[in-house]
TrEMBL record:
<dbReference type="InterPro" id="IPR000225">
    <property type="entry name" value="Armadillo"/>
</dbReference>
<dbReference type="GO" id="GO:0051211">
    <property type="term" value="P:anisotropic cell growth"/>
</dbReference>
<dbReference type="InterPro" id="IPR011989">
    <property type="entry name" value="ARM-like"/>
</dbReference>
<dbReference type="Pfam" id="PF00514">
    <property type="entry name" value="Arm"/>
</dbReference>
<dbReference type="GO" id="GO:0008017">
    <property type="term" value="F:microtubule binding"/>
</dbReference>
<dbReference type="InterPro" id="IPR044297">
    <property type="entry name" value="CSI1/2/3"/>
</dbReference>
<protein>
    <recommendedName>
        <fullName>C2 domain-containing protein</fullName>
    </recommendedName>
</protein>
<dbReference type="GO" id="GO:2001006">
    <property type="term" value="P:regulation of cellulose biosynthetic process"/>
</dbReference>
<dbReference type="InterPro" id="IPR016024">
    <property type="entry name" value="ARM-type_fold"/>
</dbReference>
<dbReference type="GO" id="GO:0010330">
    <property type="term" value="C:cellulose synthase complex"/>
</dbReference>
Amino acid sequence: MEDPDGTVSSVAQCIEQLRRSSTTAQEKENSLKQLLDLIETRDNSFGAVGSHSQAVPALVVLLRSGSLGVKMLAASVLGSLCKEEELRIKVLLGGCIPPLLALLKSSSVEGRTEAAKTIYAVSQGGAKDHVGSKIFSTEGVVPVLWDQLKNFPRNENMVDSLLTGALKNLSKTTEGFWSETIKSGGVDILIKLVASGQTSTLANVCYLLGCLIMEDTSVCSQVLAAESTKQLLKLLGPGNDAPIRADAAGALKSLSAQCKEARHVIVNSNGIPSLINATIAPSKEFMQGESAQALQENAMCALANISGGLSSVIVSLGESLESCSSPAQIADTLGALASALMIYDLNADSMRASDPFVIEKILVKQFKPKFPFLVQERAIEALASLYGNSILSKKLTNSDAKRLLVGLITMTTNEAQDELVKSLLILCNKECTLWHALLGREGVQLLISLLGLSSEQQQECAVALLCLLSNENDESKWAITAAGGIPPLVQILETGSSKAKEDSATIIGNLCNHSEDIRACVESADAVPALLWLLKNGSDNGKEIASKTLNHLIHKSDTGTISQLSALLTSDQPESKVYVLDALKSLLSVASLNDILREGSAANDAIETMIKILSSSREETQAKSASTLAALFHCRKDLRETHVAVRTLWSVIKLLNVESEKVLMEASCCLAALFLSIKQNKEVAAVGRDAFAPLILLANSSVLEVAEQATRALANLLLDHEVSVQAIPEEIILPATRVLQHGTMDGKTHAAAAVARLLHGHSVDQALADSVNRAGTVLALTALLESASIESAATSEVLDALVMLSRSKGSAEHIKPPWAILAEHLHTIIPLVSCIADGTSLLQDKSIEILSRLCHDQHAALGAVVLETSGCVPSIAKRVIGSNNFKVKIGGGALLICAAKERSQKLMDALNEPNLCTHLIHSLVGMLHSTNSSIHQRDGQGNMDISISRHSKGKLRNGEAECSTAIISSNMVAVWLLSVFAAHDNRSKATLMEAGAVEIITDKISQYTFPSIQVT
């Protein structure tokens, strides 16, 4: 051990001197005095004594067998060593307790005093002193101490004080303390000590008495019999020291909690006013510290015990305000109310809940011009307690704003204080926002003026209020800027407290996000360095705020900032990297592609570092890096088409084999982003195919979140036609359907896309149809369609998948076509019809094609839904008129026939838009012209998959099929629909004539001996 000032050698010499048997008693005393002086004057002496293996044993030997003077000095040295916890344990384990107890029992007053001092010092281990607890219990320390108090309570005040202090310490740790106390007559001793009024012992005695009452309720009767209650009430008064008052209140709290009779005694002894005065004493007498808080809390709890709960006290105090005869009495009552509100907790709330609205209303009424300032001051204190109470404040509106306003009111003076009080009263009396309560821009100017030369606490309150304002009100953002708020906010960001910095950063982020002009102002104020400091050194919350604010602030690439962030990314602060990555993403999102690709540039170094830390040993860093790269590639199509995407892809694919679910999810998400440009980047396509197999495994993960992200990546990988063609359908259909059924909206959207893109590479054969049917894919798709908004990506992807499934031509007898599921579940028709009514033309065409497959079996239900859905009939008519897709024209016509079969008049009414009916007739005639060719053959090929059943099937006669018009087939849709118009009115007939319908129909009839029909 280093020994620059000779302390170690001096300590060693003293101990060696003490250990020598030849040393005289006087020499030992001198050595002990020298050692005591070293311990008390040199800090490094504790280490020197602690490092000497024989120090404590030697001192304990002297304590046991030395002369009285040596024993006293040895005890004093041992007591001084106990100032350090490690040495206190050594002293305890060194066997000091028996000789200390022997010295305590000696006839020497000085000896007893030194022994009491050391026993007090060695007992200060606290509740976690398990070693001391065993030793004190084993050595029977508690009975001895009570016995000494019984024998020497009269004229050794210092000894009594130390012994009661030691007993207080031991009561928190020693096994069997309370049972030993009762056996040793501790109750009577405590009662006598309370009565004696011995100032040095009263605090400890009241504490012990309070704890003893809580341990054994039978003690109450002895306390009451001795009339100790009155003495305890007297001790609450201002003539006593704060610790005595606090512990006397604690004893009354215990007594009133455990004994009904005691509650009556306290009331009859005029104890209520004494307890109320005790609760307001800290405020009135400017008391501070733990004792002041304990006095307030203990006295209020005693009042609560007497009154039937804290809520009852609060109600009683609130009601008594109306009957107070003087301002001073009002102020005292408000002070007591503040104390009650301060300690109101879940226990009080569960017994009888207080109504914070009523309390607030009562307190606000105390702000009257005629009342002196003291009343307003106490009302503010009570409101501070109300808004600071987490249980009560959460039920109030704008409680955070009110709490901050109250805080500012207590820290301001004169005009500023008056304005803040007005704002508080407006906020309490009216249902309005903080912006209106502060009178808009005037209040903002006041708050900004408080940001300057003010205390740290006042600055925190002012900036926190501005933060609330900027979060809830857009007008405030321009008001803050116009009032010159940006420079002081940046200054606080640089030099304020941690909380003020975080709130200032939040405000700056809100300002930047609101307006480009304001953002430019913040940028010119040079806020970036301070935000970078917060990003590096702030709390987790501060780092997150700084990252978000940088995201809002930085709209152009800055080489210096990127370099600083890259440096942070490679630093030894792994917890910062999560937030640094977010900030770097913001910068790289606006960096030029040339900068990112140019080797050696700050932007290139940054993205290379981001790719590099994908292989970090820290899972959180890996996941965040993958997530950040995903966001970057998602927003930058140009970057996805470069070699950087390929390098990233190689690194991310390696993560698909790790065990961390979080990493697997983010890696899959990153792959999904990279695959968005798989058609444009052939290298990504080539490398990406290696990810197919592991993604299939992840898509079947038992963890839905992992499966969802893997399905998302697969959906985009299937944009590569080669992957889509080579994929085994069932490997995609089953996991995608699971995500469709149980995933998030984004996951379901990508699952629908995966199904649609798979089907683009496959015809719907029997095997694929069987997979779709077994998985329940069609119903899962329609359920998504039901829950998605018409303009969402999910709607488009679902329709794309369903239209591909609807094009299946047929199947084996035991495997029905997937689209047939829709006919069995009629509720699935409704969202498809809604897409026709409200969707874009592309969505309408897909929906018409899907629904037209159902016309054969469900024409009645389909027609009813089409007619009942507002705007559907006109939308179908417009697509029949405007579409170039013959299948859409035929399908739309079929849907209109279904509607006409239900109620033809309602169909005609729905087509009453100007010229719509005329244009539709002309379009149908045009369809007849185009079908007057070899497209429609009598064998039913072409569009014969669209048909409408008119009535029951024809019967067989003499073994031959009866010719009938039971089925309206696709090549007859236009004719049938024209017949509906012809039967409606003369105007429609005239339009038919003008359009040449008669001629084309006559021509068609002349070509056939019988209409082309489908016989079933």
